UniProtKB/TrEMBL annotation:
Organism lineage: Bacteria, Bacillati, Bacillota, Clostridia, Eubacteriales
Annotated ranges, domain PRD: 69-173, 174-278
Molecular function GO terms recorded: RNA binding
SMART domains tied to this protein: CAT_RBD (SM01061)
Coiled-coil region(s): none
Example GO biological process: regulation of DNA-templated transcription
Protein name as catalogued: Transcriptional antiterminator, BglG family
Repeat among keywords: yes
Keywords: Repeat
Length: 278
């Protein structure tokens, strides 16, 4: 029958891998895997809380490797995290996360067992740039503790948040990390140029790094937006414009792409707010 889910692998009582119409699905539901074996058929979809096409065809081989080489308990908790995050966000996530998140959690657990410190130098930036994903990631850390009796460090909250954000916008984690890393470098550059220390908990800081994130994406994708700023603003904010121009030159060097004039003005305004706050 077309609506049959054929069990391919049981990961836990709450997560199973199934096939239907030559597609691979991850099925989650309380007790859905209890008593199930490979080859069993599931017809009662009322017990399924959420079903995913686990991977696109291009990633099918990678997911097969994850299933083969990773502890099924780790894959199961990863799938529960994805399900929970999708429900919290009220939107589907890119299927790439099924490969990336399980692989990341597995690697983090291995490093932890080997006594290797897991450091996240961009934790503050991730928390500020992606607050919704970070909040959900905190729940994910608790879920890992419940299911695996493993306490992941706070640094992993940031990395999981990055995976969730990347899956929301269908962007690679490496690209998300690239922008986050560059934002941190720009902040350090501004602090050095102005000889100031920026309060990372201030509203001005949050506004600046949020603007920088979107500015970097616009530059990287060759997009521009209209400049509604006063043409006399540069005369009023001489120091801020000077620093902003240096920032934009820095961005051009890092991304190897031109930065539109309009970006200079808006970054200058955010820098002025920082200075006024200090």
């Amino acid at each position: 029958m077309d609506n049959e889910f054929i069990v391919s692998k049981v990961l836990s009582n709450n997560v199973i891998i199934c096939k239907r119409k030559n597609k691979l699905y991850v099925l989650t539901g309380k007790g859905i895997g209890f008593g199930k074996s490979k080859g069993d058929i599931i017809l009662n979809e009322s017990s399924i809380e959420k079903k995913f096409v686990a991977i696109d065809d291009e990633d099918r081989e990678d997911y097969a490797k994850i299933l083969q080489n990773t502890d099924k308990k780790v894959v199961a908790v990863s799938e529960e995290i994805i399900n929970m995050a999708s429900q919290r966000l009220k939107e589907p996530l890119s299927s790439h996360i099924h490969v990336g998140l399980a692989d990341h959690i597995n690697f983090a657990i291995r490093r932890l067992s080997e006594g290797i410190d897991i450091v996240n130098p961009f934790l503050v930036e991730i928390q500020t740039l992606y607050p919704i994903e970070y909040s959900i990631a905190e729940e994910c850390i608790n879920l890992v503790k419940e299911r695996l009796n493993i306490i992941l460090p706070e640094s992993e909250t940031g990395f999981i948040a990055l995976h969730l954000y990347s899956a929301r916008v269908n962007q690679s984690v490496s690209d998300s990390l690239k922008y986050t890393k560059l934002v941190k470098e720009i902040i350090n550059f501004i602090q050095k140029e102005l000889d100031i220390s920026i309060n990372e908990k201030s509203l001005e800081y949050a506004r600046l790094i949020s603007h920088l994130r979107y500015a970097l994406q616009r530059v990287d994708r060759g997009k521009t937006f209209e400049n509604f700023l006063s043409p006399n603003l540069e005369k009023k904010l001489k120091q801020e414009f000077k620093v902003s121009k240096k920032v934009c030159t820095y961005i051009e060097e890092k991304l190897d792409k031109p930065v539109p004039e309009s970006e200079i003005g808006y970054i200058a305004v955010h820098i002025a707010r920082l200075i006024n706050n200090i």
